[in-house]
């Protein structure tokens, strides 16, 4: 095997493009999602642009990226439209990585480049946050929004045009939240009314929703893959082939950033709410529904669930009979999406652990499944059987003796207290508005159905209980 590290000398034919995007975050997801998409546009001659990456925190991948001339391989593994996909591509759409903690001036100098038009980010769910100690004193502030404020202010001082800003963090209304924190710093740092006006008039903050499962560096197969590729690559990223990006922004953005034109599954819309609902209820909802029942049956991964006859029927019927009918979206959009989700869940190349999805399951149930349960009851005057069975499984799993619980100490204490009196458990837990945002003991029939499901789950096992409900 070659011991050469991937570089521009091992691959001299790779294209170079001018910098057009500033990207906060150099992690696996962004490199396999945004930068991979830039590469697809460049391959087709539609963009001619690269991204300059900024490390949001002091420790990062800048050194490793520089050691291989900012090149890395994206490996797409999975099934798309019933066909296996196993592709490998060297991504050359990243120009360089700036560490603002070691070279703050290089970071601020990005404001001078008229060619830079876009800003993207993924700084994890923790990144779009206000940090009270951040100052405009010429040293890198801690938070991402404060760093961005400093850069935008420099751009404003130079009298230049603003940016299209598209955060990818998995938080609701991410673009609005980012703009609001930037405005907060601008006010706190006394940057003046004219800057606030420039911020509003010259910049476009978009909200966005991202969807691609990116397991990251293939640790267990790295040596084998390097032998196959013929070069060493410390930054290989594996991802599923499926991709979806919804950007809530002006219609002209689709032309300025021609992702859809490049054949990528990207939508620019003036309202991303329906897409968010679709993803949260049809992808994240089944994930959360399968976790307690699957774990109690000894299944370990999403793929295990989908390869199990009873459990895969559970997922299929949950989606078709209880989730899709409750979504206010055209069926011709929901059905293919639901099929694609189930294909993605079956991906044999991705080990998606049920335990990792189980983290903070109560709050996930509240956003992903409870709204559907309530709507079903209101519209049909009865409760959905599969969601309530999964709800009972979730409550039982929080007793702590059947499967490992992963939640905050406060949450576990609430359940320990409620389970200390099993006869009153269902009433006590449903009444707790801090868990559900309302008193669920008032939902007609819910306490009775849950008590009955709990009894079934305790007297048999989750598979036997499921078999009574799936066809
Ligand atoms: N991996 C996936 O399948 C996937 C899919 C969709 C969304 N996401 C989301 O993308 C985010 C990043 O995932 P990843 O797989 O790239 O992880 P990663 O560990 O490879 O990268 C994390 C990135 O976030 C930055 N970061 C970490 N902590 C931070 C903090 N406190 N403040 C600011 N920046 C911080 C790091 O510098 C790095 O750039 C996660 O929050 C995840 O929810 C991941
Ligand atoms: O990331 P979490 O823990 O909030 O949720 C677990 C999964 O439902 C989630 O990671 C999905 O796989 C992801 O949202 C797909 O884009």
UniProtKB/TrEMBL annotation:
Could you tell me which SUPFAM superfamilies the record lists for this protein? 6-phosphogluconate dehydrogenase C-terminal domain-like (SSF48179), NAD(P)-binding Rossmann-fold domains (SSF51735)
Extract the Gene3D superfamilies matched here.
N-(1-d-carboxylethyl)-l-norvaline Dehydrogenase, domain 2 (1.10.1040.10), NAD(P)-binding Rossmann-like Domain (3.40.50.720)
- Reaction catalysis annotation: D-mannitol 1-phosphate + NAD(+) = beta-D-fructose 6-phosphate + NADH + H(+)
Q: Which residues form the Mannitol dehydrogenase N-terminal domain?
A: 20-259
Q: Which residues form the Mannitol dehydrogenase C-terminal domain?
A: 271-457
* Top-level division of the source organism's lineage: Bacteria
Query: Which Pfam families is this protein grouped with?
Result: Mannitol_dh, Mannitol_dh_C
What are the UniProt keywords, alphabetically?
Answer: NAD, Oxidoreductase
Locate the transmembrane regions by residue number.
none
> What PANTHER family does this protein's entry cite?
ALTRONATE OXIDOREDUCTASE-RELATED, MANNITOL-1-PHOSPHATE 5-DEHYDROGENASE
Which NCBIfam families would you find in this protein's record?
PRK03643.1
What protein am I looking at? Answer: Altronate oxidoreductase
Lineage here is: Bacteria, Bacillati, Bacillota, Bacilli, Bacillales
